[in-house]
Amino acid sequence: MQAVPAKLGLQSPSGRDGGPPAAPLLSGDSIAARLLRIIFCCYFIVTVVVTLVQLAAEYKHTKERVVLEIRAMQQTFGPGIADAMWRFNDDILRGILSGMSELPVVAGIKVADDHGKLVRAVGTVLDQGVKVHAEADGHLKPEPASDGLFAEIFSQDFPIVYNDENSQERVIGTWTVYSNQRIIVKQVEYGFILILVNSVIKTCALWFIFLFVVRRYLGQPLRQLSEFVGQLNIDNLGDRVFVLNDRGHHELHLLTNKLNEMIANIKASVAENEQLYRQLQVEQTATRQLNESLERRVAERTADLVTANKDLARAIDTLRIAQEELVNSEKLAALGSLVAGVAHELNTPIGNGLLAATVLADKTRQFASNYSTGLTRSTTETYISEMTQITELVVRNIARSADLVTSFKQVAVDQTSSQRRRFYLSAVVAENIKALRPTINKTAYVIEQSIPDDLIMDSYPGPIGQVLINLINNAIVHGFAGRSKGTITIAASAAEDGWLELRVGDDGVGIAPEHLGRIYDPFFTTKLGAGCSGLGLNISHNIVTGLLGGKIRAASQVGGGTTFALHLPLAAPRHDELPAAVET
């Protein structure tokens, strides 16, 4: 592999070597044009905001002046309106209102008596909240609806006060002067035009000033710089130092100096790269030879690994077969122990039932003998009483035997198959504990169960029972070793949505810290050679994490007992299985 030096992609402004021609001075993408647009946009926004503020201030000031003029009418026209109202002289009142309506700030005038009844109106007024127009004859007609921006009216109310001959002031009504936004706009219209013309002139002047300044102090120097850069080529950097034809010392002069420094550094880098290229060719030759040697060694090692992998695969297959045989033997041994215990447990109720049946046969023969010689009332009542007791004894023992057989049958079916079904966890745990009772009753150990009765699972009761039996046997064999009594606690509670936690704990000797991390390893046991295979917890771990789709963890303290926590889903993952039986 050979390295080829890259060429610097800088072309001349005339487009030689396929390069594009130089861009115009103030093209749409040039820095000068973009700078000009940004500055002008900012200035335009500021100008618009300032102009709007000026217009708003002028409008507000004019409106305040109009309001003051309206308020001043109270002194000018108030006495005349009061006198005309007092004397009921409608002609004088109409003349005063007509004269007031000619004022530029007045849109309408309304006069009402002290009861609020309209007396006289001129122009546009509000009557009961509705905008109306007063005709010359005093008739009111609705004002045409107007959606104009300046159609809103505002008013100023004044009381009509008359001084009688006793110099007492009497309020005989009110008169209201109306004005609107359009009147205010007409008064400030000329000022608005001057402000807008002033803003437009200043904006245009600033545009031309910036255009000249940007072209003179930014555009021309940048074009000189771009023409120089366009003439550069990696094969001919030249010895000329670029000097900017512009007076002063600004940022473009600093950029020019950095450009000259960059050209000098490129020349030095090109020379250094040529030397490195020659060294690289020598090293590539040595690397190629080393790679060929490594390939030969890898091929030899690969052949050795293939042989070793085949031997290892055969050993793993042999170990897997041995482990499966041990697991099956472990299951059969547990089932055989279960059968022996249940058979022993069945002896008592079956023996009692047989004894009661024998007594029943003897009593029946005796009753038949008495029947041939003649029965007495007392004999019959004695026979009936004894038959009732014996029959109850037979029924009770047979029912107990049937209950044991049913539990054993369900546990045996579950233990020898992985059939999925819906079941109550408390019932499955109770059945497995009942099956272990013959073994537990021979000892002083106690099993306590605390599981809610309404906890339903859709899972595999057989594997769950096998895990429970393994954990209980583990507690008896290892946890209570050397102890005459102990308590095993089995409890369950609902965890987060769709999960439960099943805990099996004992108050035994506990597990040593150095052994706690290895308890799930196959064939690991502290009683090797004493009848323990070391597969109980390994089988339990595989069942919980595999078939049941859960997790198992152990917590133990030396002298403080051991607790196994099973985190199980209420609905186990689906596996290839027969249709599940449903327990109601």
UniProtKB/TrEMBL annotation:
Entries under InterPro entries matching the protein: HAMP_dom, HATPase_dom, His_kinase_dom, HisK_dim/P_dom
An example Gene Ontology CC term for this record: membrane
Domain Histidine kinase stretches: 341-572
Segments of this protein annotated with the region Disordered: 1-21
Principal EC category: transferase
Enzyme Commission number(s) of this protein: 2.7.13.3
Known catalytic reactions: ATP + protein L-histidine = ADP + protein N-phospho-L-histidine
Membrane-spanning residues: 35-57, 190-214
Domain HAMP: 216-271
GO MF annotation terms: phosphorelay sensor kinase activity
Coiled-coil segments on the chain, per record: 259-332
Keywords: Coiled coil, Kinase, Membrane, Transferase, Transmembrane, Transmembrane helix
Name used for this protein in its record: histidine kinase
Organism (species): Duganella violaceipulchra
Taxon lineage: Bacteria, Pseudomonadati, Pseudomonadota, Betaproteobacteria, Burkholderiales
